[in-house]
Each structure stands twice: as structure tokens, then as C-alpha cells.
Amino acid sequence: MNIYERTGRRVVGHGFGYAIGALLAASWLVAQEPAGDKAPPPEFGPGALPVRKSFVMVGTGRVGCQGPWTAEERKVQRAAPLWQLYMHGVVDLFASPVPWEALLGANQAPAQWLDPTALLTTNVRASTFSALKLSSGDSILLEKPLPLPALKSTDSVRVFVWLTAREANGHDDSELMPMRTPSLEIVARDAEGRTLAVHPGPIRTRGTFGWHCYYMDIPLGMATVPVAVKDGELGDLTASVPRPSRLFVRLRNPTGGTVWFSTLSWELLGTPGTAYAPEDMQDPVTGSLAPFPAMDELVVHLLAGRAYAHPWQFLRGPEGGARNVPDLSTAEGIRDYVTQASKTDTTGSLGGAVFLGPWLYAAKGHPEQLDLPPEWHTHFRAAVTSLQDGKTGFWPTPLCPTSMAATARVVENLWGGTALARNGFTVPARPWLGYGGEAVPEAKSIVGTVLDSRSRRKAGGVDVGAWGALAYEWRNDGETEEEICSLATTRNAFVLLRLASARLAEADRARVEQALLAAWRSVYRLCVLEDGTWKLGSRETEPTLPAFLPRILDLSPWLEERTDKALPAPNVAGAANAEQKLVFTWSDPVPAVQSVRIFAAPKETAANAVRLPQLVGILEREKATVWTMDPVHAAGYMRDAARNRWGIDIGTDAEVPLLADRLAIYDQLKGAVASGSPLTVALPAPHTLAFYAVSVDADGAQSALLPLEVAGIVVPEAKPEEPEEPTELPAAEDPFGDEPAAEPAAEPAAEPQADAPAEPAP
Fold this sequence. Notes:
- This protein is α+β, with helices and mostly antiparallel strands.
- The strands form 9 sheets. Strands 4, 5, 7, 9, 12 and 16 form a 6-stranded antiparallel beta sheet that branches.
- The radius of gyration is 34 Å and the shape is globular.
- Residues 1-38, 226-236 and 732-762 have low confidence and may be disordered.
């Protein structure tokens, strides 16, 4: 059953001969002018599937389609031109269309926003819906949600929208900036109108282009709410359950030209034909996964991901089907591109060239995808390193000679693959980010410049130690108290300090560790809020986006296993109750100790081998707030808060391996208690375990490991061993005890089978 039948709408076979005139386009790329009723492109038929024509009535509007596809067979018989109309070749022919009038609110007059003369006209899809027109600087958040049926919280929907543009997307800019392109955003809100998440759309195309269909997949059940855990022994730990959300549409045209959005529609994912592998979405001409391969620029192609069904021809520029990418397949081409981009690209990504590393790494295993001459790599590396300032170690942008943002982007993407030892935890190497080599060039200069750009101001009489908004593109001019801590800038500083200091002398690394810890204290105090969410900077007033903090937390020393021998051991007693649950109490806590960790390890484990994965419970000195929790508990609390507020999980990204490890430890905790309460945990076979405790200070450092004697643990009585079954029966005994037992009677010989040959006589 197709989407029209499922929604109960009227579907009528039609040759696109609408009363408004013919709606077929004369070409694939620039579908601007009405054309006569034409047959579908020859690529669509004759073929394995017959061409179908239909339209759906929505109110007084009609949306038509024609092509050889069914809902179940939409991925077959897709010729290369389809990617010029549809992002990833994913068609909207089986989605439910929604006219803009159905989403406009009472104060959003249709006459102000809708253009009835701009009609979607292509040779696959056509519509009589008015387009929503946005001039330069316009944006609108439609007041009514998408008219979705009652769906489960685990469902997801695919939202489509068509776009055409005239001189749009910041056409006066030399380089692409995503915040300056037209955009479709989906805002998820709960029943009370609270924003749960904002899903940015995929549109990154600028300039002048004809109708193109973009889509985005939205999970409905990502947002969660905390619930009480049934097991009362878990103390203050909580869990989360999914909750559904309503979806609202926001459209923007930030700068330049005019754009028209048309024929919004949605389709429930999980139905037949809606799942696409990367190779299903790869443009057969350019080999790209970009939303609009023919029109998108290099950075969009590189950040869209890779597939391997077709060669990566987009790096050949117009000859490879990518009209807005120059030919970068020659040594001279990449050198000239990097040099020119350094003069024009204000984002510091060298026109996107800094994102080439993973592609070049992948090409080693797939040489058929990308054929580059050997000297290409020499020219590329030389072009990138020639731009670095030898004194500061920084890469500049056209607007800023000391750009931490640009430097972090270059270093992280081309020298970010080094394995890092982190106090008992090794961050695995990521060789796809190591194209530049192992050692960061001018590493000591980078470290010095980053440390010198820390905030000089104080908050509450204490040195801040983090990086303020001005250090993002460093300007040493009049930092205000509201700018003393920026998560975006601090994240870049943490990345640079970790990567650049990895191969420096021990004294340099120790200085970096101290700076990272001081900066984390600032972030924790100034940007993390009481409910565990966070704001992007000290000048913000409420949480906005769930960005930057997970990487800062992962790179900070706070979650590492660090030992401070001067920290006093805790006064902890343990005993088993009548149910053989273990009860730990902490008495006489001292101000220097924020929490106590209880470990349980097999008895044969050497004490120096006990590590955080053996953590079973936490006792905290004060009433649990995010600022007084043990670091492992606080990390889990912030993760749960982010799930609740934004519907994201901060521990699933490959960029945060240490944080992910600590969150896994948090998830297996048996309990966390505070304010003098005893900690009760239930463990299987406690008699086989050895117990330890450590003190933990506010910076996450641990005292020496303290062995604990837990009184009252009952060792189960050993069960008597069962006698082994004999392998042979003993000799028969005479029941009367005088005469030997008689021999058993011989069994009669088996009768020969009628069809079996008799054995020969001896």
C-alpha cells in the first residue's frame, strides 16, 4: 500500500495536464520555466518497471509525480540525472505533502510569506502549492507543528522540502559559511512547548539553481525524561525513558538573494524502501554524498561522508561533475587552491582542504577511488605548513593573524591521529586524522600562544584560567567579565594543548595539565548549570545548544585516574547485613575530600591492578548537586541531563573515548549516596571479592588505595562432592558369598538379513 492509500487521500492517474498549465521541466538542472506535457526522461523507461503517473489532492492543491518506482522498489532504475533533482537520489513520491497554509499561525499572514506564482515544476515532481518566499535576512518559525499521526516515541520521520534560489547564500562571500546559507530546521518541542532539540537541515548550496529536493531524518523518541529507578539501593542514580515530541519547521535565508521553499512532505521511516546504505545514496557522476553534488562546494562534499560504489570524481571539478569545485587532482591544482583559500576563507578551513585527510587515508585502501600523482602529497603538505606562523605556531585567517579556531581546525584534522596516554587510559590512535605526520609542527610555540591567551580576569576573586570569547580569533582588547569563559574557544584550546604537548618535554606537559585542570574548574563553575545542562559561555543566561562541553570534559584531567598521596584515606567501615547486602558508611569526612569510591575486585587481583572499572559505589560528602558530586557521578548526571533537555547522548561520539569509558562505569554503579547516608550494594558471591576505598578531591584526584575488611560476609558451606559415576561396571558378586557367580548366558546369534550376503565359513 502506498502513502496515498495509507493516508486515505485521493490518488488519480494523470498526465500532468493540470488546469494551471503544463508542469514538466525542460531540463534536469534548471527547472524554472513551465513546459509542455512531456514523456519522462528516457533513462526511466522502458525498463524493468513501468512509468506511473499520479497526483494527490490536498485541500485545493495538487501534487503530482511520475516515474518507474514503487514504494518498495524506489532504489532501482535511478539514472544519474536523478541526483540533480533529489538529494542522494531519495525521492519524495511516497511522502505526505503539507501545504504551508496548514503550518502558518494566526499572525503569519499567507500574503506576506507565500508566492503563488512560484510553482514546483520538474519532470518527476510537480505541485500547485504556493512556495514560501524568503528575501535576504528573512526567517520564519511556523507556528503549527507537522500534522503527524500518533506515533511511537521510537519512530522516526523523513522530512522533505524543495528549494530554488536566485543569487542566494551569501553570494558576496569568498568562501562558504554554513550559517549564511538557506536552511530548513526542525525544532522538537514537548507538549508544554519546551524546546527539546533543534535539528539543522542539510542545505549548504548557494548561488542560483533550480528546484532541488532536500531531506532530513528526525528521530521522535530521542528526548527523554528522568524516572525513579525501581531498585531502591541505587540511591541518587536515575534512569531516563524516551518521550515523544512535536516537530515544528523553521526556514531561513540569512543573507543574499531570494529563495523559495515548496512542497514540504513527510514519510515514516521503517516502511519498505526507506532504508538507504551509503552506496545507495552516492551520486554516480561525482561519487559524492553531498546534498547537491553538481552545485555544492568542496567543504560540503568532504564533510558529507564517503561511499565506494563510484570513484570520487568531484575532486576533478567541473570535469568530474562538480561545477563549484576547481580541479584539485593535480599537484599544482591543490597547491594553488590552498594558497588562494588562505587569502579568502575566513573560516580557517582553507576552503575545506583541511578535511581532505580522511579521504586520502581511505584512498590508500581503495586506490580505484582516487588516483593522485605522488608529488601531489608533497605539494599539499608544503602548502599547508607554509602558512603557519613560526613565532606563534598559529595559522591565520584573512581577518585574524592569530586564529585559535583556524589553528585547531588544521591541527585536529591533519595531526589529530596520535594515540595519547592519559593516566591509566590510552586514547587509541586515529590514523585517518594523521595525514600531516605524528609531531605537530611548531608544537611548543602553539602551546605557549594558547596558554598566553587565557582569560586574565577573575570571577569571584579566583583566576578563571579558561579561554574567553575574544581568544577564538584573538584580540587583546578589553575583555569583559561576560566574555571570560567561552566553551567554543576553550574546546579549541584543549584540543591544541593535548595534541601539541604530546611529544614535548615532561615539564611542558605538566604545565599543560595544570592549565587544563584550572580551565575545567572555570567551565564547571561558570557554564555548567544546577540541572546538569550547560550554556555556551559565561555571558549566556540559559542552556541553548549541547555543544563543546563533552569534548572539553573528555580532554580534561578531571576524569583521569590520578593519585595524590597527600590526600588522606577515608574512614570507611563495611559490613554485610542479614540479606548479605554490603553496607558501607563513611564517618569523619574532611573538607579536602569530596567523595569516597568503593571498589570490589576478585580476591586474586593485585591491589595495584584495581582500576575504575571495579568501582561499585560512591559516597559523597554533601547533598548531591552537580558541583559536589564525584566526577564519575557528575559525568553521568550531565549525560542524563543532556538526554532530557536535547535528546542527545554525549558519550557516543568517537571523539570522547575517555568520557565514554567513564559513562560506562557510571552505568554499572550499584549506588551513589550523600549527606552521611550509608551505601548499600548487592553483589553476587561477595566472599570471592576484595574491597577497597579511596578518597577523591574536587579535582578528581584519588588517595592511595585503602583495603577494607567487610564484616559479616558468610562463606557458603561447601557441598559434599558427589561420587563420580564409574566408567565400567564392577564384576558381579555371588549374593550368597560361597560360589562364584555364573557366567551370563550367551545371546543368540542374529538372523542373517535376507538381502545381506552371509559371511563365509572359517
